Amino acid sequence: MMTILSYNFQRAAVILMGVVALFCFPLVANAQDELTGTISQGVLKPLPIAIAISGNEASGGDLGDKISKVIMNDLESSGYFAPINPAAFIQQNPDVAVQPEFASWKTINAQYLSNGRAFVDADGRLQVDFRLWDIFSQNQLLGQSLTATPENWRRIAHKIADAIYEKLTGQEGYFDTRIVFVAESGYKTARVKHLAIMDQDGANPSYLPVAGNNTKVMTPRFSADSQEIAYMALTADSARIYIYNLETGRQEAVGQIKGMAFAPRFSPDGSKLAFSVSQGGATQIYVMDLRTRALTRLTSGGFINTSPSFSADGSTIAFTSDRGGSPQIYLMNANGGNVRRITFGGGSYSTPVYSPKGDQIAFTKQSGGRFSIGVMDAGGGNARLLTSSYLEEGPTWAPNGRYIMFFRESQGGNPSLWMVEVTGRIERAVPYPGGASDPAWSPRLK
Amino acid sequence: MKKFGPSFLVSLLLHAGLILLALISLQLNPPPVKVASVPVTIISDMPSRQMAEAPVDELAVKTPEPIPQPEPVPPQPTPEPPQPVPTPVKPAAKPAPAKPAAAPPDKNGMKKADPTPVKKPAPKKPAPKAKPKDDLLSRLAATPSQAPTRRQARASTQKTAGISAQGFGPADAGQKTALDELMRRMQDNWIVNCDVPGSREVNPQIKFTLSPNGRVMQAQWMNRRTDPVWVAGANLALAAVNKGQPYAGLPDGLYNRPITFTFSAEQFCRGQ
Asked: What predicted TM-score, i.e. pTM, was given to this entire model?
């Protein structure tokens, strides 16, 4: 009996060891076999991408081509993408319902492909289905279906560009946004200034029917929900701040303020409005609670304090002051306390604007007869100039904090809008057929 | 009274015509911009939704596992080797675990553009190069000259900066050179965007094997994260691995062997 038990025990042990060996050996072998390496050199260049949306309008127009062009323009303007000319496509109109012919897209060196179709459904709504493919992995990265009224086809295109941008960079898109700005016309000595709005790519420009047109309107600023615009209207004997609601068309003057009020800026939660009031040779910064209309003065003294900008969390206000002898940028708590200067370099600094994430401040610097747009850390320091020319100012951030729009004016010329990436590597003009200044970039549209 | 001559009349007519043209052109000048209220029509929700024709849902895209394989290479026309009959007590007689790419299912669940007849999935062909483990070891030790079906590894004339390989013994100098060459090919296809915040911390580790015909198989992102900047960076690294295939002309020891490369944006972007 003992012999049988001992035999069985030995047999079980052998089997157990065999099983252990069976499971362990491949692991050891794999660990020994695996080759590893680190690649620390790459290529810095825009991503080659092909955009192929097909579809025709009921009127016979080529809606797919139009949407493709808007997407390509958006992506190219970001500086991160190099859209491939559709004339080079080997596979024409790739069906969104089937896999693309990857070999054809490899041949033209497309690293990514976004194909799709646009059509108007039975309800009269425009639908665009699209997919994003990684050509070399032959993998679908994205697939969405978007609908809107047909006249909003450009917004669908911007949303597709946003989705592609987000997927391939990991950053929030910014293409489905608008710019409110001051459209300028007429002679320089008698400029007519209209408040105007357009898409971020310069499409759909139109004037806003607001008070102050045909006089002088300045410094328009979006609210956090993109639905309201605060701006200053200047007449011969007054300067007042108005708030215009884009959705309802309603506008109202902000309180009865003695003196000239200007440079308004909404708080991030939209509950407050900071602005400057010039009175008796001094300019002070005030904050108005938009619900109660209570007005609080934040600065004092016989200085010029202007251009307030709230931090992303609303706790701090950056502003320009000449209390140190020349215009410099200062920070203060939202209640006006703890004022500290953050710029000390040569020249003057003005128009501070917090980035949407609150980690940086854009500014205008004037030095040596030239103006520059720059950025610095939110607490000051690490200032770097991105662009410089005869005259440029009025920086405003894209909602993703990667681009800054501003206006530039050559000597004797009309002002025009420009945008620059925060590294300064990418800069381009924003198309508008006329003079344009004082831009404000909207948050992403809902 | 002096009479007006024909030249005077012609001149008068010309001037009148010019004035008329100027007036017309003024009239034709378009208004600069339409003065109207901006139609801020918020379009309805545009949700991402599944398409009937392509049953690929968003979730599948967001969790790209398994990493899709390249197009399968047609199996070699060599006759099927006899199936080894594994006995349960002799696990060493089993085929090596490294299998060349079997025909992958349509990873995106879509019908193929090419209307080729649907293959029966049941009779899977065995890996044409599958060999027992002891043979794998012997192949690893083989010099390039013992692999007549592939070209020998080229002597690298490029700089070795930017790459570092591990996993070789002192006798594997030739294979290390070949691995360096493989890494060089991939780094040439690795597009990096150093400007995106956070991209400098992205160091995806991509594990893959090379089939005997140089195709990338089972490429996987090992240190997976959900951070969108990491996801974008890993996609670029995967694209770099896949873009250069087929990787031909490498020593046998690099094929059917797990390889893991770390794509260090941190190191690359440091110098940018």
From this structure: 0.72
